[in-house]
Design brief:
single chain; mainly alpha; 6 helices
């Protein structure tokens, strides 16, 4: 009797957690749909505003490696978006991230992941800001090497 009771309580607890996760999913879906509507209305300008705020959060918060792997997958999908209908594919991506976010079960991390998605969309449309940083570093290194040659001579 005790074993069956324990199994019943465990099943009830599992069902309760599933219901909570489903409720969170619905809330996330509503928030994401609102974001899409705003993006469609304001187009590129609204996305740029969101992305600037999101970059600051990424600089201040060190995020786990799992999120970085998700960023790489998102970049590949965003390249496809440039050639196709963007809004439809964005919805598919958000659904995928909802599944990933359920496993973490932390709304703060979920918001950071959504912000990363939006930030990378603009980077690829504007020509990757990351590439600009690389070019700056290369130019600085070239200056240091060229200045060090005369001093050595």
């Amino acid at each position: 009797m005790a074993a069956t009771a324990a199994a019943a309580t465990a099943a009830a607890a599992a069902a309760a957690t599933q219901q909570k996760q489903e409720q969170r999913q619905q809330q996330q879906q509503h928030q994401q749909q609102q974001q899409h509507q705003q993006q469609q209305q304001h187009h590129h300008q609204h996305q740029q505003q969101q992305q600037q705020q999101q970059q600051q959060q990424q600089h201040h918060h060190h995020q786990p490696q799992q999120q970085q792997q998700q960023q790489q997958q998102q970049q590949q999908q965003h390249q496809q978006q440039e050639h196709h209908h963007q809004h439809q594919q964005q919805q598919q991506q958000q659904q995928q991230h909802q599944q990933e976010q359920q496993q973490q079960q932390q709304q703060q991390q979920q918001q950071q992941q959504q912000q990363q998605q939006q930030q990378q969309q603009q980077q690829q449309r504007t020509g990757c800001t990351g590439v600009v940083y690389v070019e700056v570093l290369l130019s600085v290194s070239n200056q240091t090497t060229s200045s060090s040659k005369p001093s050595s001579i």
